[in-house]
Write a structure and sequence with these properties.
homodimer, 23 helices, about 525 residues, 16 strands, alpha/beta, globular, five-stranded parallel β-sheet, eight-stranded mixed β-sheet
Chain lengths: ~525, ~525
């Protein structure tokens, strides 16, 4: 990947998409992460199609028609996370996206455009934006489309109704009047107008004027039959028990002496390495391990060292790389929140759930902490510790911290937790502060955990997926609306014969045969 | 229905439920409406089971196992509306509910308890509250249960996870510590404690100390093959076109001279009569007319008279009956918002969409207004008018007015609309203010409407149901979370073989056979 020559104009980068499908999403997610880390001076991404009229959901439709339900759901979730990531790049990194539509952006293509900061549409009497999912495929623009139309673009609801039911979409002045795009530009003025907007956005960015990026080298992982081994993480599959155990390892050396030394370490810097490996492990389980009912988080290491890294990042919070690493953790932890398996953390002797790693405890549906040491084991008793990062650095999709979500009923409990920042808490203290679900002694531990995990594996997978609603109490954001509400409707529609049945619209699309619908409404 | 003798103590009324099912919901909804209107001096409802241990979802399970998908969805929606109505009675009428659990409240029974202002549990070592839906039936506590646990009771999410997966539930002190009930009381102290709480709630109520209620006489309706005729509403079914047209008639006389005269009119008072009939017509279509894709609203009458009634109610807004009528409209309009058919309003010559009735225009997915008069017709041109009630008296489930939802992008447009209160607006003026979707002249009218309605009838019913997400942009409330998010998850789960398949938990419940699950997770 090279920064385009237009970099001289506005430190920009041009991403050209050939057509829109899951492959593109993976490439796009990768490209954006790399721009964040490898090219800190890039401030604006131009998103446009390689050829006019292919910025659409063609491949997407074929994929959806043929894919399993699991694949569709994973596709939609990853796609949502990528688009949320683009908005996050804008909001927290000052890396803006301008979408240039020099043809027609239909379906998934326009949903992607909606994630940009600014949408430009060529005014040639033909180019349009459209969401033809409903009239054409009997499904929703369900990867954020509807929600971004109402909550980001704030399109008037009756106009949104017209737009979402009009196969050919909306073009020209009406597209601007209805807030579907930000501007329409004639073909002859397009490049000039794009450059002007790009310069405007670049001028608002806080990204460094110049700066040496770091290389996000591909992750190394060794896969065996029942395990995946990373440099800071081990994943073990107990497939008969429908369980995956992820053990995170704390740092084996203190933080570097300076921000420059952190840049020098690059992708080897422990917090970044761990975040990338955790993210990869979660995506691997989502996509490849459908029979895993519960993910068990464990850790090993020195909690004081983990806190030292948190303090290091906090001390350098205005450095671009520290900011990007913190942002990566934020996104990786949101991916954990949105992973629809039961999540449990076991805080055991020798573990290091402190600061950033304590977020996994709060992201879990339940946590158990062992009181004291184990018989015949000399590992130090489990210790839990909080840091400043637990109070806002890593908001959940609902916009507030995991601890604030946890203590919705009781702001005083949140204050008590804040008062304990930096303290090394034993199991009883952590339980008393409400930080873990249960503190158990060695006598009860094994049986309690075994019964819990067996029970979890025996419940209906679908009902447990819905139970994840318990994770998101309190406020709502556009992001939580997309992830928790729109996705639920789309999942429902993806089950219905009108979409996926033999005579449904998804199956019949492109065959020349009209779909046959069960017309009953409720 | 007679007010219980305990009325002397705390102006209370005791509702005893035999078991919990849809029949009870209908009775409960009816009882609460009647208490609001017929017994304005009642301030506290005691909700308790007729016999210990039957305050549960027994009937409910049998119904769910046997019911069609349509019936299940309608049941859940009506149930949600009833519970939201109980909370509304507390919030806006000062009619509080205390739930007394003198046995075990399980499943739907506890979900109902969650709608109360105060939950008391007898402390006998056995009585408990529980949500066993997930472990027992492989579905969710989906009629508000999960959301009220997290967002109303604000139960810590890991405790909520334990609670919702523990079939036998939680009792005694832990039920209080975990915020699942407000207090536990020993059997010997129960009646005394209930009376004390009831007096406390009664003291907070603004309901009149005494007052003559009005009688909510059963509605009269005449049903023929293709129509239902009420006193202020006509419903016509064009079943081949998958359409129902509801025509609302304006008042045929000016408002009464005083609040006393309004009480004298009682259920015959035009605004109340119309609201009750509209509510009934909507419920009838939901439950009995599954093939109706679109509901078309029309009206006939004098818009100035409609405004006069709005002004009358506003002038008497502190009178208990005016407050109850306004509240009834608020709930009826929310029922329209939550009705998953396409909604369209046609504003034609001779119509009276003004003030309260204009809310139907804003509740519609689209609206069309005719410019001028029709050829050969001497009805006055369509006139549209706003009143103060359009700016907050009837919040949507998302907590803001339909106009505020409409103009999310543009507060100035909301101000311009407010500036037009009381003006008689023609089609072009209404369109310019953004109040209707399209103003059309007589030449285009017929074709445009015909094509739109035909198209609507041809789309997938499921996708259109999901498209209703466009109705609820902007903020979220507990109510909108229940209606738009939790319901979507429950609908999805109700489609899944793990719940409803031949080997699913709902089908096998009570048979002695364990359900067989497809264990795959996504």
């Amino acid at each position: 990947m090279d920064v385009d020559e237009k970099a001289t104009l506005f430190e920009g980068y041009e991403l050209k998409l050939n057509s829109y499908d899951l492959g593109v999403d993976i490439e796009l997610a990768d490209a954006i992460e790399r721009l964040r880390f490898e090219y800190p001076q890039v401030k604006v991404i131009l998103l446009r199609s390689a050829k006019p009229r292919v910025f659409c959901a063609g491949a997407n439709i074929r994929m959806l028609a043929g894919a399993t339900h699991a694949h569709k759901v994973n596709f939609c979730k990853f796609t949502n996370e990528t688009r949320n990531g683009m908005e996050d790049a804008s909001e927290t990194s000052g890396l803006y996206t301008i979408c240039v539509i020099n043809g027609t952006a239909a379906g998934g293509g326009y949903e992607l455009a909606l994630a940009a900061d600014h949408i430009m549409l060529i005014d040639d009497g033909a180019s349009a934006v459209s969401l033809p999912e409903l009239p054409l495929l009997a499904v929703l623009p369900g990867t954020g489309g509807l929600t971004r139309v109402t909550d980001k673009r704030k399109v008037r609801r009756d106009r949104a109704d017209v737009f979402c039911t009009t196969e050919e979409g909306v073009k020209g002045k009406r597209a601007v009047d209805w807030r579907l795009v930000d501007e329409v530009v004639s073909a002859s003025r397009l490049e000039e107008a794009v450059a002007k907007r790009a310069r405007e956005f670049a001028a608002r960015s806080q990204r460094p004027r110049s700066g040496k990026g770091i290389v996000l080298a591909p992750l190394k992982r060794e896969r065996s039959a029942d395990a995946v081994e990373y440099s800071t993480i081990s994943v073990e599959f107990q497939r008969a028990a429908r369980r995956a155990t992820i053990t995170l390892r704390g740092p084996d050396s203190p933080p570097p002496a300076s921000a420059e030394a952190m840049v020098e370490l690059g992708a080897q810097f422990w917090p970044l390495r761990l975040a990338r490996e955790l993210d990869d492990a979660i995506l691997d389980i989502r996509a490849n391990e459908f029979d895993v009912a519960a993910i068990v988080f464990k850790s090993s290491g020195d909690p004081a060292q983990v806190l030292a890294y948190d303090e290091f990042l906090h001390a350098h919070k205005d450095h671009w790389l520290a900011r990007e690493i913190s942002g990566f953790w934020k996104r990786a932890l949101k991916r954990v929140d949105l992973t629809s398996r039961s999540l449990v953390t076991l805080v055991e002797p020798g573990s290091c759930f402190a600061g950033t790693l304590a977020e996994l405890v709060f992201a879990s549906d339940r946590s158990y902490m062992l009181i004291g040491q184990r018989d015949g084991d000399n590992k130090p008793p489990a210790t839990f510790a909080l840091a400043e990062v637990n109070f806002g650095a890593y908001p959940m999709p609902n916009g507030i911290s995991r601890l604030a979500s946890r203590f919705l009923a009781d702001p005083a409990a949140l204050d008590r937790a804040r008062g304990a920042i930096g303290e090394m808490l034993d199991a009883e203290a952590a339980e008393k502060l409400g930080l873990v679900t249960f503190a158990l002694d060695d006598i009860d531990w094994e049986d309690e955990i075994r019964v819990f995990l067996e029970e979890r594996a025996s419940f209906s997978a679908d009902a447990l997926t819905g139970l994840a609603n318990l994770r998101f109490g309190g406020p709502e954001t556009m992001e939580s609306k997309i992830c928790a509400r729109l996705s639920a409707w789309q999942n429902w529609i993806f089950q219905r014969p009108n979409a996926v049945g033999e005579e449904g619209a998804l199956k019949r699309y492109g065959t020349g045969q009209k779909p046959a619908f069960d017309t009953r409404r409720v």
